[in-house]
């Protein structure tokens, strides 16, 4: 699915989805065990992650200075943005991965082609 001019809200409730965002101020809400592929050509994209057992990839997020990942409902079991920043790791192919837990069902967010240095504390929130 591709949005048109921004300010759209899209919710994924499990399954596999691909979203292409353009424009300004859109939001993706990801619930439950989902496999979501996001292509971010927008400014100010907010991705709300409501579960720690999803596998998400986000391309282009490192070029969105106003983009925010909201970890909600204890996703990842992080207690501060500093915890999130210290948990960022290389994905082994030029990007960054954030684990959403440590158990066998734990998911992750892979920031494709965004080095750790491109992600800042302002890109994350715990809600």
From TrEMBL:
InterPro entries: RTX_toxin/Mannuronan_C5-epim (IPR050557). This is Calcium-binding protein.
């Amino acid at each position: 699915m591709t949005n048109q001019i921004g300010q759209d809200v899209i919710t994924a409730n499990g399954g596999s989805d691909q979203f292409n965002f353009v424009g300004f101020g859109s939001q993706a809400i990801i619930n439950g065990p989902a496999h979501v592929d996001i292509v971010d050509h927008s400014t100010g994209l907010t991705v709300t992650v409501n579960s720690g057992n999803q596998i998400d990839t986000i391309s282009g997020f490192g070029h969105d200075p106003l983009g925010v990942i909201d970890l909600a409902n204890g996703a990842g079991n992080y207690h501060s943005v500093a915890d999130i920043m210290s948990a960022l790791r290389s994905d082994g192919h030029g990007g960054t991965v954030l684990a959403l837990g440590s158990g066998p069902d734990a998911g992750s967010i892979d920031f494709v082609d965004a080095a750790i240095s491109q992600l800042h504390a302002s890109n994350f929130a715990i809600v």
